Amino acid sequence: MLFDSLEFAVFLPIVFAVYWYLSNKSVKLHNAFLILASYIFYGWWDWRFLFLIIFSSGVDYFIGKKLSNTTEERKRKKLLWTSISVNIGLLGIFKYFDFFTKSFAEAFTLLGKPLDPVLLNIVLPVGISFYTFQTLSYSIDVYKRKLEPTGDFISFFAYVSFFPQLVAGPIERATNLLPQFYKRRVFSYDNAVDGMRQILWGLFKKIVIADNCAGIVDPIFNHASDLNGSTLAIGAIFFAIQVYGDFSGYSDIAIGTARLFGFDLKPNFLYPYFSRDTAEFWRRWHISLSTWFRDYLYIPLGGSRGGIWQNVRNVFVIFLVSGLWHGANWTFVAWGGLHAFFFILLILMGNHRKNLDVVAQGRHLPSLKELFQMGSTFILLSFLLIIFRADTIGEAWVFINNMFSESIIGRPQVYESKAFIPLIGVLFLVEWMGREKLHALEGLSKLNRPWRWIAYLSLILIIVCFRGESQAFIYFQF
Question: Which of 32, 303, 327, 454 has a 20 to 30 A CA-CA distance from 362?
Fold first, then answer.
C-alpha cells in the first residue's frame, strides 16, 4: 500500500478512528489492533510475505527471552549469533543470493571456465532490509544489556510491524520505540496536527517534486548514449532532487503518521542538501541507517580508537556495506566506495567533524563561503548519484563519459513539462526557513490561524494541480 495511493487515503482514517476508539481499552488490545492494521498494510502487496515478518519477529522475541534467562557468556554468544545468522541469512537468500551467484559465475567466465549459475529468481519482499535491521538491533542491544528483553510478545510484534515505518524506515531502535508500546497512548490534538503538517509536506515532496522529476530523469538515464552533456548534467541534478524528495518525503509521511497514533519516531532527514561537506551530509541523510552502521558495525570494529589507519579501514568497510545494503548490484558498492573515499579525505585533513552546527544558524542567509560549500557538496553528491541510478557500471561510465564531453556547454535536450520546476525553489526555500526545526512546516504552528490555513490550502492546491505521474517509492527496492 503506497502512502500516496487512494487505498491508503481510505485505510488511514479508518485505522485512526478505530485505534482511538479503543484507547480506553487495554494496552494489549490497542497494540493487537495495530498489529492487525500493520499486517493488512504490509500484506496489501503480497500476503505470503507476512509469514516472513512473523517468523523474523518470533525468532528475535524468543532469543531475547532466552538471553534474559542465560548468564553464561558462551551460550549468550550462541544465541546472538543465531539471531544474526537467521536475520542476515534471510536477507542474503532473498536479496543477495542471485547477485553473488552470478558474480561468482562471471568471475570464472573471465578466467576461461564458464559456469551455469543456479538462480533462485525470487521476489524481494518489500521492506526486508528495514525490518531485518530493526529486529536484529533488538537482539544485539539485549545481548549487550542495553535493553531489558520484553516478555510482551504483542508489544514486540507491534514494534517490528508498525506500519508507518515498516517498509522504508526510519529504522527504529527498540530502545526508543518499544517502550512506547508498553504504555497507554493519550490522544494529543497538537501532536496530531503537527503530524498532519509533516504528512502534507511529505506528500508535496513525493507527489509534486519527486514524481515530476522522474518524468525528466527516467528518459535521460534511459537514453544516455544519445544525449548531449548538458542534458545528462541536468538529469544528474534532477535525480538528486528526485531521490531526496522521494525518500525524505516518505520519511516525513511515516513520522507524521506515527505521530497521529501517539508515537515519536526519530528524524531520518535533517536538510542534507544544506550540508557543507560529505561528512555533514551523512549526519543528515538517512540518519537511522548511518547511525545503525555506526553503532553495530563501525564501533564494534574499533571505530577510531586504534588510530587513523584503523579509522580509515573501518570507515571504508561501513561505506561498502552501506552501499551493498542499498541493493544487490556493483553500482551500489562503487557508490559506497566513492563516498568512503571522500569521507576519508576529510578524516585525513581533520575536517570530518568540522560542521556540526546548522548552517547559517541564527541568520537568514548563508555567507558566500557557506553557499560555495553547499553548492560544491551538492554537485559532488549529484555526480555520485549517477552511479547509484545506473543499472550497471558500464552504463554509469557511458553516462559520465558523455556528460563530460564538449557538448556539456550545449543546449539541453529536455522536452518534458517544466511547469513544476519553480516549485523546486519552493521546496528549498521552505526547508531553508525551517532548517533549525525537526521538519520544515513545524514553524507554521506559530502563525495566526488564517495564515496557517492559507499555507495548508496552498500546498493542497499545488499537490492537486501539479501532481506528477505516480511512481513507486525508490527505497521500496531496498
Answer: 454
pLDDT digits (tens, 9 = 90+) for 309-355: 899 999 999 999 999 998 888 999 999 999 999 999 999 998 988 99
Q: Is 24 exposed, middle or buried (0-12, 13-18, 19+ CB in 10 A)?
A: exposed
- In the chain, where are the structural domains located? 6-187, 190-276+355-477
- Residue 363: DSSP 8-state: -
Residue 189 identity: Y
In 3D space, the residue among 56, 178, 190, 188 whose CA is nearest the CA of residue 127 turns out to be: 56
- Degrees (nearest 5) of the Cα angle 238, 242, 244? 120
CB-CB contact of 396 with 330 (8 Å): no
Angle, in degrees to the nearest 10, between helices 50-68 and 128-143: 10
Amino acid at residue number 443: G
Q: DSSP string spanning 266-323?
A: PP--S-GGG-SSHHHHHHHSSHHHHHHHIIIIITTTTTTTT-HHHHHHHHHHHHHHHH
Residue 94's pLDDT is 87
Predicted confidence band at 478 (pLDDT cuts at 50, 70, 90)?
Answer: low
How far is the C-alpha of 92 from the C-alpha of 460, rounded, in Å? 42
What local confidence, expressed as pLDDT, does residue 417 receive?
63
Of the candidate ranges 91-100, 275-284, 329-338, 425-434, the one whose mean pLDDT is the lowest: 91-100
| Residue count of the chain | 478
CA distance 205 to 234: 19
Nearest to 31 by CA among 66, 67, 57, 68: 57
Straight-line distance from the first to the last Cα atom of the chain, in angstroms, rounded to the nearest whole number: 16
Active-site residue set: 326
What is the spatial distance between Cα 128 and Cα 125, in angstroms, rounded to a whole number? 6
Max Cα-Cα span within the chain: 73
What's the grid cell of residue 34? 495495530
Cis amide bond preceding 300, omega within 30:
no
Amino acid identity at 267: P
The answer to whether the CB of 463 falls within 8 A of the CB of 207 is: yes
* Segment holding 465, helix H or strand E: helix 449-465
Give me the phi and psi of 116, to 5 degrees please.
Answer: -105, 100
